[in-house]
């Protein structure tokens, strides 16, 4: 969309993959180009491009780069899939392009379809946001996490476009601050009122009666409805259940993994310790401090009020509702 306030996150441009370099936001809006599979893998590992649906597009475009270069596609697919294990969309995008006769055309189609899916998903989810609702979100599940429009932020954006006047509590999302850096930037561009909070404030906000619902994205949804998302999401879900606040997950069906029976089977990425010990180039922990930097956690299906997809809204029991929406079997 030409007049979208948020430019395309990732696109195929003259034989290269052109991406917003998300490491530089919110300070600078800079584009990064990957001309080789290696460059693309580095951009994925370093979080220049991140977010499950955007990783799906990146995976497909990585295979397209390999095809254009005449490389072995199985080797390229394996290298791309090895960059980040949790978001199932990455392997999904890789396999879509790998299976296509024209990987470039397929990769471009994955990007176009992603935006369409997110708009449909947003429309399904918008009605769940109460008029004037105060929505808490964690991490960034916006246009930057996708080819465009966003999933959790797509729901909020659609509610905004429908005049439901949502306002947003933005969790800063330590350690990499996707909330403070990316979600806050997007909501500002979209003109949606938002307030940034430290992650530890969620309980206090909910206890004060200041949160009407939670909407988050997902990196992988198991067949039973367990949801992997950015670390800290599980804690928000536990709090929401305690305070009887609806907890919604918004994700395209490409994030649902029919081959993963439960959250226990979802691989959780361990990221470099420096993400925790350093902040804005400054050391904030003693040198040599032991660090556990699991990038994701798994929210049990029992804490999820509903899962919003482009095909509709799934409610418990998820084994049945997800199977019906995703048309398995
Ligand atoms: O490590 P990231 O930034 O890739 O993690 C992203 C998330 O956890 C998002 O919430 C998820 O991918 C959904 S994006 C629509």
Short summary:
With 329 residues, this protein is α/β, with parallel strands linked by helices. It has eleven helices and 16 strands.
Strand order of the largest sheet: 6-5-4-7-10-15-16
Distance between the termini: 36 Å
Strand content: 15-25%
Mean pLDDT: 97
Please describe the biggest sheet, giving its number of strands, its sense, and whether it closes into a barrel: 7 strands, mixed
Subunit arrangement of the protein: single chain
Q: Give the low-confidence spans.
A: none
Computed CA radius of gyration, to the nearest angstrom: 19 Å
Number of contiguous helices = 11
Described by the principal axes of the CA atoms, the overall outline is globular
Helix coverage percent = 25-40%
**Element order: H for helix, E for strand:** EEEHHHHHEHEHEHEEEHEEHEEEEEH
* Helix/sheet category: alpha/beta
What's the count of strands? 16
Bound molecules: 5-S-methyl-1-O-phosphono-5-thio-D-ribulose
């Amino acid at each position: 969309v030409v007049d979208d306030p948020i430019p395309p996150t990732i696109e195929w441009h003259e034989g290269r993959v052109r991406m917003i370099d998300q490491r530089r936001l919110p300070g600078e809006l800079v584009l990064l180009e990957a001309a080789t599979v290696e460059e693309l893998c580095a951009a994925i590992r370093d979080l220049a491009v991140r977010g499950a649906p955007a990783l799906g597009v990146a995976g497909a475009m990585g295979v397209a780069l390999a095809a254009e270069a005449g490389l072995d596609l199985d080797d390229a697919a394996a290298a791309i899939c090895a960059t980040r294990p949790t978001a199932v969309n990455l392997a999904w995008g890789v396999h879509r392009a790998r299976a296509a006769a024209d990987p470039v055309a397929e990769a471009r189609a994955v990007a176009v379809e992603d935006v369409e899916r997110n708009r449909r998903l947003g429309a399904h989810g918008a009605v769940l946001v109460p008029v004037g609702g105060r929505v808490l979100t964690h991490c960034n599940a916006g246009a930057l996490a996708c080819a465009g429009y966003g999933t959790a932020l797509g729901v909020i954006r659609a509610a905004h476009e429908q005049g439901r006047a949502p306002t947003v509590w933005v969790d800063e999302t330590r350690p990499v601050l996707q909330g403070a850096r990316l979600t806050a930037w997007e909501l500002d561009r979209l003109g949606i009122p938002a307030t940034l909070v430290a992650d530890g404030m969620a309980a206090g906000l909910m206890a004060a009666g200041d949160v009407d619902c939670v909407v988050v994205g997902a990196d992988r949804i198991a067949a039973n409805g367990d949801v992997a998302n950015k670390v800290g999401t599980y804690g928000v879900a536990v709090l929401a259940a305690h305070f009887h606040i609806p907890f919604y997950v918004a994700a395209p069906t490409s994030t649902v993994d029919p081959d993963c029976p439960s959250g226990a089977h979802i691989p959780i990425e361990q990221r470099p310790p420096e993400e925790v010990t350093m902040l804005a180039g400054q050391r904030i922990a003693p040198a040599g401090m032991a660090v556990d930097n699991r990038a994701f956690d798994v929210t049990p299906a029992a804490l999820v009020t509903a899962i919003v997809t482009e095909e509709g809204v799934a409610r418990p029991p998820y084994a049945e509702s997800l199977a019906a929406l995703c048309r398995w079997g």
